[in-house]
Amino acid sequence: MAEGTRSKAESAKSIKIRELNELADQIGIRPDDRPTFVLAKFEEWEKCEREKEKIDREREKEAHAFRMKEKEVESEKLKANDESRTTNAADQNSLNCQTPFFNLEPFDETKKSIETFSERFQNVATNNQLPIGKWSFRVSQALRGKAYEVYAKLPSSSQNDYSRTHY
């Protein structure tokens, strides 16, 4: 036990013994029985103090374990978010080797309707197994003129969602 802690504990014991002697006087304990009374009450008090300390240590141990578990869960969440962001960025920003490549004729509104172009694109994309998440990007590459202007005015969330961009 540290020196400061020991002196505080000794001081608390001295105070408690003084209080118990005063209590013995107040309740009329005979001088012959006083040492036995004070000793018995002091031992009860020490036992209670040890129990309190034990409970405090257990609470602190549980609180520490809880804080460590919280940190672990937070760390796992951050790791999962980082992995998710990395995966999403890779999926959205790159045409990798697994993304099929196919030529797509630019859309010319003077030669065909947007409906015909859209139907043709869907057939080509499906036959080439292009993931639907990449459809909107590929369509945007083929748009020209007014069709591209309309597409460009869409919010970015709609530009990336084929179900909102096809006609």
UniProtKB/TrEMBL annotation:
Biased composition, class Basic and acidic residues, residue ranges: 51-85
Sequence segments annotated as region (Disordered): 51-94
Protein's UniProt name: Zinc finger protein
